[in-house]
Structures are given as structure tokens and as C-alpha cells.
């Protein structure tokens, strides 16, 4: 296969990177990624409806790219979308009506905007929030008791808990939570028929964005009139060089916080519990030594890798691992592959609750490193610290099912049977 300019290596295996169904089939996915790491770690992928890109599957290459945020920028193409959707977003952005969140921005604007919310995710804010998070964790474990002895852990528990945490941090009223849940799923689960709106067309996705805009425009107005000391008020009243953020940056901030903090954590929690059930020795080890919880949480996050990819675009001709990459071409950073890289992890396909060190890339790296990483860790810690001591037994009550997505995803159903106090 050739690109317009040079003959490029392009294997069949590279196409998994752009194939949502591959992410619902762990065996097929990891077989291809393992092959790519060994044989073609920088691979050219031309898989319509996506524009071609370079697939990057080695941990070290992803870190090098993310570290150099002048050579590699997010702006033009932060994640993989069909060409038609990329064009629609570009048109909207040029017209000043498109979503432009932190993940779409580059420094120095990115740095200024990130600073506005950053204090709300620092250790002090996390300590202040811990009581509320512990309370919510208890509420959801109690709920498991109420609905037991069987449930679908994803749809009954894991979906709601992180959303409640993040919407509590934002300061939104609890009666709005179900609406936010639906909107974030429609936005992030776009390739999966079960979650998408309508037929999942670009128009459907734009309608989801419009619903977000309508809701958060009203929120900005009310928080500017009456600041209430929550994250939503910090965003609504955030300034850069003494000026309020633009309406679009403000709206985009809400959207990224409400959406990035929710499905991702749900996937890490349910992927973590699924791994504990399928590795009973590791479950017993953790129950027997709860001081392993911080390492266990990291391992659950590595194991599940909820965010599959982000992209960067070259601002100059360059090369990765000796492969020439032209200015304007984009790289797809496969966090899923990096997290199974044999050069970084001993026995990468073993789920080990005591793994240390654990240099996973599930939260990315560099200036865009996940803003909510400490929050996600705390949420998971609280939930499993509440759940495990109360758990007498747990097993699968059906086949776990994975979502078909190339961006954010994981288990969409985890039927379980349990005995819980
Ligand atoms: C286990 C759960 C989570 C995972 C796996 C995850 C993963 C990621 C990844 C991979 C990135 C991009 C990093 C990069 O480009 O290098 C990111 C960015 C981000 N995440 Fe998370 N995230 C999680 C939870 C959260 C939570 C709870 C929040 C809270 C609101 C959050 C908010 C954000 C924001 C605002 C960004 C954009 C940062 C920027 O571009 O500067 N995430 N996350």
C-alpha cells in the first residue's frame, strides 16, 4: 500500500487501530498489537472512512512524542474520527461554533485554560472531596446489596458512581444527573450502536453537542450571576489576561469535565472488578492485604486502558524510530499497546495487584496528562476499599461484553453473582 508521497509499510494488522469491533475482542486486538510492536511499531494505516495516519504502538515512542509538544501538536486532529466528522468539526471551529476543549488546544492557550480548573483537581481539593466520594462509594455498595444477589455491575453500579462524583464536584443538581449520563454516553460511545443517538451520523453527533451547549449555556449564565463556590463557578468566572474565557472555551470546559471524568472511570472500575473475578488469586491477595490498594488501582487502570488513543500532528518533517514522517501527518498513540509493551512491563499479560513499578500510559503523558487522574484514583480506591471487606463471594453470572469503540470504552456488560454484607 502506498501513501501519496512515499512507499510505506502498511500491514493488515495496523487496521485494528481503526476498527471499533477489534476493541470488543481482546484476543484479536492484542494479537495484532503484539505483532505490530514486534514487527512494525510505526505503521501506516489507510482505513476509510478515516484519513490515513501513522500507528504508534511502542511505549517509549509515545512518551517521546507526548514530551515534545512543539513538534507534535493536538490541535488539528486530537483523536481519530471519520473524515466527514473531522471536516464538520473544522468547519464549525472556523465558524466559531465548534467544541474546543483542552484536548483540542495547544500551548500557550492550553496552559492558560488548563490553569483555570487545575486547583480543583489538586491533592487539597481531593482531600476535601474524599468524604463525599466515600459516602457515594458506600451508597453504591449498599445498592449492590439491595439489588443482589445478581446485577450487571456496569449498568447498575459503575456507570452512575463516577458521574455522581464529577457532577457533585461541578456543583450540578442531582435531578440533572440522568440527563448528563445519557449525553456523555451518546458523545463518547458514538461507534457503539447501543449508546449512539439515532443512526450515529455526524448530524446525530452534532445534535448531542447542541444539547450540551444548551444546558451549559444556561449554567454559565446562572453561575456568573450567582457564583456558588463550585467547579462550575470557577469555570464560568475563569479569566485569561483579565478577560473572561470566551463562551466557546467555557462551554467546552464543562463538556470535557463532564464527559472525560465519567465513562473513563466507569471503564476502569468495571475492568478492574472483571479482572479481579477472573483472577481469584489476585482478589484473595488484595482482600488479604488491603495496603496493596494503591498498586491494585494502578494495575486496574493499566489493565483496562479506558482511553484507547489520542493523536498528535507533526509541525515539521521528522522521524519516529527511523521512519520518516512528514509535516502535517498525524500519529495515533495506542495507549492499549503501550500498556502491554514487553520492554516496559514484566509479564504484561498478567494481572498483578502488587505490580510496582507500573509506568502505564492510561492517563497519557506530558502537558495533556489527565487532569482528573488523582480523582479517578481516589474514586476507585474508595469503591474497592468499601466493597472488598464486605464481599464473601463473587463470580460471573454471564459473559462479559466489551463496547465497540476506538476511543473510550471497556466493558459494557459485566453480569455478576455475589454474596455481600
Ligand atoms: C480512569 C479514568 C481516566 C482515564 C483512563 C483518563 C485518561 C485520560 C487521557 C489518556 C487523557 C489525555 C492525556 C494525553 O493527551 O496525554 C486525559 C485527559 C483529560 N482528562 Fe482524563 N482520564 C480519566 C479520568 C478523568 C477524570 C475523573 C477527569 C475529571 C474531570 C478527567 C479529566 C480529564 C481532562 C480535563 C483531560 C484533558 C487534559 C488536557 O488536555 O490538558 N479524566 N484523560
UniProtKB/TrEMBL annotation:
Domain of life: Bacteria
Biological or metabolic pathway of the protein: Steroid metabolism; cholesterol degradation
Cited InterPro entries: Cyt_P450, Cyt_P450_B, Cyt_P450_CS, Cyt_P450_sf
PROSITE patterns noted in UniProt: CYTOCHROME_P450
Gene3D superfamilies: Cytochrome P450
Gene Ontology molecular function terms on file: cholest-4-en-3-one 26-monooxygenase activity; heme binding; iron ion binding; steroid hydroxylase activity
Keywords, in A-Z order: Cholesterol metabolism, Heme, Iron, Lipid degradation, Lipid metabolism, Metal-binding, Monooxygenase, Oxidoreductase, Steroid metabolism, Sterol metabolism
Family, per entry: Belongs to the cytochrome P450 family.
Identification of the protein by name: Steroid C26-monooxygenase
Species in which this protein is naturally found: Mycolicibacterium chitae (Mycobacterium chitae)
Amino acid at each position: 500500500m502506498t501513501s501519496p508521497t512515499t512507499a510505506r509499510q502498511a500491514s493488515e494488522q495496523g487496521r485494528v487501530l481503526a476498527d471499533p469491533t477489534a476493541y470488543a475482542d481482546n484476543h484479536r486486538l492484542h494479537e495484532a498489537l503484539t505483532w505490530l510492536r514486534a514487527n512494525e511499531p510505526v505503521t501506516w494505516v489507510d482505513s476509510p472512512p478515516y484519513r490515513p495516519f501513522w500507528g504508534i504502538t511502542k511505549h517509549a515512542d509515545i512518551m517521546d512524542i507526548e514530551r515534545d509538544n512543539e513538534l507534535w501538536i493536538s490541535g488539528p486532529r486530537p483523536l481519530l474520527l471519520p473524515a466527514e466528522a473531522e471536516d464538520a468539526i473544522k468547519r464549525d471551529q472556523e465558524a466559531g461554533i465548534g467544541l474546543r476543549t483542552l484536548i483540542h488546544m495547544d500551548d500557550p492557550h492550553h496552559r492558560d485554560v488548563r490553569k483555570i480548573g487545575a486547583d480543583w483537581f489538586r491533592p487539597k481539593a481531593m482531600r476535601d472531596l474524599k468524604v463525599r466520594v466515600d459516602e457515594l462509594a458506600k451508597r453504591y455498595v449498599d445498592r449492590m446489596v439491595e439489588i443482589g444477589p445478581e446485577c450487571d455491575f456496569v449498568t447498575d453500579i459503575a456507570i452512575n458512581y463516577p458521574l455522581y462524583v464529577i457532577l457533585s464536584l461541578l456543583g450540578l443538581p442531582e435531578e440533572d444527573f440522568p440527563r448528563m449520563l445519557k449525553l456523555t454516553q451518546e458523545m463518547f460511545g458514538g461507534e457503539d450502536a447501543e449508546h449512539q443517538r439515532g443512526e450515529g451520523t455526524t448530524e446525530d453527533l452534532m445534535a448531542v453537542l447542541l444539547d450540551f451547549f444548551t444546558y451549559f449555556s444556561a449554567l454559565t449564565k446562572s453561575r456568573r450571576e450567582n457564583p456558588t463556590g463550585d467547579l462550575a463557578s470557577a469555570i464560568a468566572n475563569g479569566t485569561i489576561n483579565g478577560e473572561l474565557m470566551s463562551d466557546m472555551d467555557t462551554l467546552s470546559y464543562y463538556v470535557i469535565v463532564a464527559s472525560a471524568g465519567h465513562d473513563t472511570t466507569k471503564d476502569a472500575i468495571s475492568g478492574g472488578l472483571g479482572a479481579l473475578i477472573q483472577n481469584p488469586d489476585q482478589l484473595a491477595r488484595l482482600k488479604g492485604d488491603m495496603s496493596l490498594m494503591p498498586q491494585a488501582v494502578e494495575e486496574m487502570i493499566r489493565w483496562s486502558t479506558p482511553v484507547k488513543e489520542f493523536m498528535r500532528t507533526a509541525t515539521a518533517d521528522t522521524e519516529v524510530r527511523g521512519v520518516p514522517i512528514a509535516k502535517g501527518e498525524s500519529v495515533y498513540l495506542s495507549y492499549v499497546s503501550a500498556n502491554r509493551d514487553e520492554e516496559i512491563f514484566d509479564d504484561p499479560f498478567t494481572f498483578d495487584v502488587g505490580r510496582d513499578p507500573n509506568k502505564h500510559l492510561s492517563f497519557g503523558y506530558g502537558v495533556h496528562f489527565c487532569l482528573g487522574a488523582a480523582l479517578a484514583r481516589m474514586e476507585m480506591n474508595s469503591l474497592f476499599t468499601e466493597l472488598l471487606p464486605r464481599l464473601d463471594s463473587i463470580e460471573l453470572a454471564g459473559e462479559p461484553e466489551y463496547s465497540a469503540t476506538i476511543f473510550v470504552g471497556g466493558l459494557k456488560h459485566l453480569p455478576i453473582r455475589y454474596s455481600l454484607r
